[in-house]
Write a structure and sequence with these properties.
It is built from 12 helices and 7 strands. By secondary structure, it is an alpha+beta fold. A 5-stranded mixed β-sheet has the order 4-3-7-6-5, sandwiched between helices.
Length: 237
């Protein structure tokens, strides 16, 4: 009677001590062409698998350790940026600090803020060079994102990148879009990087959203009422 391989696999899976109870059988089992074209014993094969697994664990630990260090460093930078925003006196400081934060910690070579407000009324050059009009055309392109404020990472079609970054779109390999509010109006932060796969959901993106929440708070109507940010009254007339 022939037994299919699946039956053998199922039996060994349910009886992991089978080979321990039959050590003589182990000595006769060989794994052909296991490593470098050589025939090795099952024990040698298992030992090599264990070594490979241990190496994977060590590499993963090193990667996680490095990632933790990066996150701690980014957290300190975020705290410093937020503190600087709250201590700012000039009306262009929050956006200036945001721009430097993105360039220093998010590999951002291209930064645009598409804003539904009146850009012509903005007097600060520091703000004007970042701001673009959130016109009806771009509003229609990103309606779903604006209505459901969840960041969009590395999933833009080329035509959308052109709509955001114009000629610079040709050098952009990673993109990030985050909706927020600026001076009480809708805004969309567009970030482009020449690094591949630079942006993804996770701690780094959560920190950036925290920064943007601070910007929204400092430039919103409530900031004007409490006198925390004179920029609102300057821009919105």
């Amino acid at each position: 009677m022939s037994i299919c391989e699946d039956t053998i696999v199922e039996f060994l899976t349910r009886n992991p001590d089978f080979l321990l109870r039959h050590p003589d059988l182990v000595r006769h089992i060989e794994v052909p062409h296991g490593f470098n074209g050589k025939t090795v014993s099952l024990i040698e094969h298992q030992a090599q698998l264990m070594r490979d697994r241990l190496q994977e664990i060590e590499q993963q630990y090193e990667s996680e350790t490095l990632r933790s260090q990066v996150h701690r460093s980014l957290g300190r930078a975020m705290y410093a940026a937020v503190r600087a925003m709250y201590q700012a006196r000039k009306d262009d400081e929050p956006l200036r600090i945001l721009e430097h934060f993105l360039k220093d910690h998010y590999a951002a070579q291209n930064i645009r803020i598409f804003w539904a407000g009146d850009i012509a009324s903005v007097s600060s050059k520091e703000q004007r060079h970042l701001l673009r009009a959130l016109d009806p055309w771009r509003r229609s392109l990103f309606t779903e994102l604006l209505n459901n404020p969840k960041p969009l990472c590395d999933s833009l079609q080329y035509e959308h990148q052109v709509a955001l970054f114009a000629k610079a779109a040709e050098q952009i390999h990673s993109s990030l879009l985050v909706p927020f509010r600026l001076y009480g109006d809708e805004a969309l932060l567009a970030v482009g990087s020449d690094f591949w796969h630079r942006y993804q959901q996770g701690i780094e993106l959560d920190m950036l959203r925290t920064i943007l929440e601070v910007v929204s708070s400092l430039t919103g109507p409530s900031a004007t009422e409490t006198g925390k940010n004179p920029a609102s009254s300057t821009i919105r007339g």
